[in-house]
Write a structure and sequence with these properties.
With about 325 residues, the chain is an alpha/beta fold. The protein has helices spanning about 45-50, 95-105, 115-120, 135-150, 165-180, 190-200, 215-220, 235-240, 255-260, 270-285, 295-315; strands spanning about 5-15, 20-30, 35-40, 60-65, 70, 80-85, 155, 185-190, 200-205, 210-215, 225-230, 250, 265-270, 290-295. It has two domains: about 5-220, Rossmann fold, CATH 3.40.50.300; about 225-295, Malonyl-CoA ACP transacylase, ACP-binding (Alpha-Beta Plaits). Bound molecules: adenosine-5'-triphosphate.
């Protein structure tokens, strides 16, 4: 039997008045994956998540969620849970009472409330009123409420918002386990470290269009040149040797880098050319003490792809049908 994708969107367009929030979005989200949506402010991430949650309807295009077409009626599709713009909670009730209330609204008699509170690390404050909760605690309680419904598709807008490092790790564990059990998770984030640690697939949105969708490894591989911090036993020799390796450039000294480490150099190049430099250094007897990308390959790819798309929209490159030129979807 063919597996049904958790989400299949084709040519989704959504306007808010004159503003086009989604401009022909095609996306497939596979079962059992954590899929990240990334993109600059206003790219359309929340709008897309809202469509998956039935909070708004697309103006055109087709959307299937868990194998069923989503029609214009505004309703949460079966098997879907999550929230955008923060979870809807009752501030005057305790964490436990909130979950009891939500479960009884659904007529759920075996909600597993304590398990859900434990999973998100709120069992010790289960009887505290939500009014006194921090942003991170509210996010976790919203996640617990979503987990109670045993979703096959979990939709979250910036789930790490307000979470400390331990909380972030805990939420990552919960989401990864959910995906390992066969559910799908789609979330938006501005944090590349989160996305790299959590997602197997990402879609990059810019100006309402998908500029990349696919495995994180493929996005990272699309990065042309990356900036590396390079620390060796001989800075002057490294500079000299780098000039002899095609495709490698030593960048002008950066104030911050110099203050952090006066021995380091910034070099720019493709993975292959930087590997060539390392081989060259080793042959010349220069020890390589540190070689690390200044920003992650994912972030480099993000900056390059989003920058290119925004430039294209800004100059109004057109396909002749009034739309910006079709973007490359991987
Ligand atoms: N309810 C609304 N009314 C009017 N315009 C809206 C509404 N919701 C979104 N927009 C517009 O649609 C576009 C996409 O917004 P959206 O919130 O989806 O972006 P986003 O990628 O989630 O941004 P952010 O990273 O800032 O959360 C923006 O231009 C935004 O101003």
């Amino acid at each position: 039997m063919q597996r049904v994708p958790a989400v299949r969107a084709r040519g989704i367009v959504k306007f808010f008045g004159d503003v086009i929030a989604l401009d022909g979005v095609d996306i497939d989200i596979a079962e059992g994956h954590v899929h990240g949506l990334v993109g600059p402010n206003g790219a359309g991430k929340t709008t897309l998540l809202g469509l998956l949650l039935g909070l708004a309807a697309a103006d055109s295009g087709t959307l299937e969620v868990l194998g069923r077409p989503v029609r214009r009626a505004l309703a949460l599709p079966d098997g879907v849970a999550g929230f955008v713009d923060g979870p809807g909670l009752y501030p005057a009730l305790t964490a436990r009472q909130n979950l009891v209330a939500l479960a009884s609204l659904r007529g759920d008699r075996k909600p597993g409330i304590d398990d859900a509170l434990d999973t998100v690390g709120l069992i010790d404050v289960a009887d505290d009123r939500v009014r006194g909760f921090s942003l991170g605690m509210r996010q976790r309680l919203g996640l617990a409420a979503a987990l109670l419904t045993r979703p096959r598709l979990l939709v979250l807008d910036e789930p790490a918002n307000g979470l400390d490092a331990a909380g972030t790790r805990q939420v990552h564990r919960v989401l990864s386990r959910l995906a390992a059990d066969g559910a799908s998770v789609v979330l938006s984030s501005h944090r590349m470290d989160d996305l790299t640690a959590l997602c197997t697939e990402v879609s990059l949105l810019a100006a309402g269009r998908v500029v990349f969708s696919g495995p994180v490894s493929k996005l990272a591989a699309e990065t042309g040149e990356v900036d590396y911090r390079l620390r060796t036993s001989d800075r002057a020799a490294t500079r000299r040797l780098a000039d002899q390796v095609p495709g490698v450039r030593v960048l002008p000294d950066d104030d911050l880098l110099q203050r952090q480490d006066a021995q380091a150099l910034l070099v720019r190049g493709s993975t292959e050319s930087v590997e060539g430099l390392v081989a060259h250094l080793v042959r010349a007897g220069v020890a390589v003490r540190e070689l690390a990308p200044v920003v992650s390959p994912l972030e480099s790819a993000y900056l390059a792809l989003v920058g290119a798309e925004e430039d294209r929209v800004a100059v109004g490159v057109s396909t002749g049908d009034g739309h910006p030129m079709a973007s490359t979807t991987g």
